[in-house]
Amino acid sequence: MLDIVLVEADSMFCELMSVGLKAAGFDVRCAENLPDTLELLKAKSVDMIISGGFYDGGGAEALIGSFENSIRPPIVIITGYLSQMENIPTDIPVLRKPCDVDDVLLEISNLFPDREEIKTLGPKPGGHIV
């Protein structure tokens, strides 16, 4: 399954999202700021990053900029401050808070359509994705 780094200053939101993603079978590591995120990325490669919009160290825009000279893994941004994020590349999905794990799982399935373990993600009876 995918190895995901989840970056979010709101520790409660990070914990709830992490629990939901782990229940769907993903390996998830959390960071609360840009320096901690960069340390996680140096320690181990990841399949994707889920990033809040703003946190200590510069937020999503600074995170994206940190990959300027290297290959950037797929990123999904979750933010309540969309109007303040002007320099996000168009290939990066942006979810607006409030959102839940189902919204994120849908974006993951869109980003990795050829991965067999991801193909099972999708709407199920009752409207939930798992």
Describe this structure in words.
- The chain is of the alpha/beta class and 130 residues long.
- It has one domain (3-119): Rossmann fold (3-Layer(aba) Sandwich).
- It is built from 5 helices and 5 strands; from the N terminus they run βαβαβαββαα.
- The protein has a 5-stranded parallel β-sheet, sandwiched between helices.
- β1 (3-7), α1 (11-23) and β2 form a beta-alpha-beta unit.
- The radius of gyration is 14 Å and the shape is globular.
- The relative contact order is 0.17.
In short:
The chain has helices spanning about 10-25, 35-45, 60-65, 100-110, 115-120; strands at about 5, 25-30, 50, 75-80, 95. The chain is an alpha/beta fold and about 130 residues long.
